[in-house]
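Regression check, pyridoxal-5'-phosphate case 464:
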Amino acid sequence: MEKALQLFQRIAKDLLEDESKKRVSDYIPSDELYNKLDLELQQDPLSKEEFEEALKELVFASPRTATPAFFNQLFGGRNETAVLGELLSVLLNNSMYTYKAAGAAVGVEKSVLREVCKIIGWSEKSDGTFASGGSLTNFMAMIMARDTTLQDVKRRGMHAPMTVYTSEGSHYSIPKNASFCGIGRDQVRYIPTDEKGRMIPEELKNQIEADIDNGYLPSLINLTAGTTVLGAFDPIEKILPIARNYKIWTHVDGAYCGSVIFSRRYRHLLNGIEGVDSFSFNAHKMIGTPLTCSLLLVKDSFRLFDSFSNEASYLYQTETMQMNPGQTSLQCGRRNDALKFWALWKSVGTKGLERIVDKQFELADVAREYVRSHPDYELHSFDNSISICFSYKGLDSKELCRELYENNTLLVSYGEVKGQNFVRLVTINAQNTKNDILDFFRTLEEFVSGHSGLTKKKSLFSSH
Ligand SMILES: *Cc1c(COP(=O)(O)O)cnc(C)c1O
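Current build output:
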């Protein structure tokens, strides 16, 4: 083991050194991957040197998500304390189903969940779990919503048509999960959003009433805290009375931006959160832990037991059962995803988490200010969001993002709302500085001035 750790350290040291000089790894077209890299497996073992070389080659060829040139998805950076926690969880290799197999790790997981529940403002009756990704915490929420709507579905299977409500800007895991749950993709109602990408309460209410009239059972209202493209927050407070009136489970999908719960300054974006039934967020997005670290919090822990316990019913629960998190999880064997978050939280305190969140909004303000004050740019997103959507010189953003990628310049992606496409810059890496953000724009502008062949966006209103 010690030799393996030394090898790890050599590779890590080389990578860090190279990353400081070279922010983007060389682009490898997918159809050339197997020609460029020796990835195939063979009968005979490699020599130690050959093996080290193979590992190093792979590591150096991998996309660099920790550098200030990566803005492609809703994660980035490399928080060293969280990485340390993750490395320890790999070394310990506990599995989170029982106290017997996980021991202290159960306490770690429970501490994180308890503290988040407290911050939400929930009582001791609340609880939660970790799953491997925000899609799956959303899935668990939908299952609880389904089981609450019709108690016997768990045993009999789906026998009544249910509906799910989510905004047109919400994540694609919602329709996928609806198919997994037996609710069906066609029973997902996409509620229109206002000019800032937020679900319109009145539209929601009308749709629910129409569905009830047509014999459907409304089962879940999914609200998004940080929509994938615009980073918009659905108005929880305005929607709760509707949810209560029709007794519909309300979940907040905060995978992207639910971590604002840690910020006194931005927590207002989640106003009303204490009134919902479940809430999920990804610490591997805003908090910056390694992937994956996805939390699901549930106001009434009975619902979690009711949907996910295997044999034991909630009534027969003993203290040991509460310490066996396998009773409330989706999986059986489960990684210790809590440790990386706990390690970071323990070291920087809740105030440190707050600083991480606030920093991202500060960087977003820098980026928005830049876009607003430079006439070659057009802003398509809004304040109080860490997604900055813009177009530059009327260029086609899809092509621009692809060219930046294939020319090893920047990793950033494009988004599309209501027929407009634009570059989506996310200031999710709290390790970036103001200069890194300004550098992003400089790099983009230099690239465009050196690539005159880029095409202009097709105008939506062009005459034929
Ligand atoms: C990222 C994201 C998800 C999915 O989370 P994964 O961990 O990638 O599965 C769900 N909802 C929203 C709003 C997201 O941004």
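Comparison notes: The radius of gyration is 24 Å. The CA atoms of residues 5 and 369 lie 45 Å apart. No diff flagged against the previous build.
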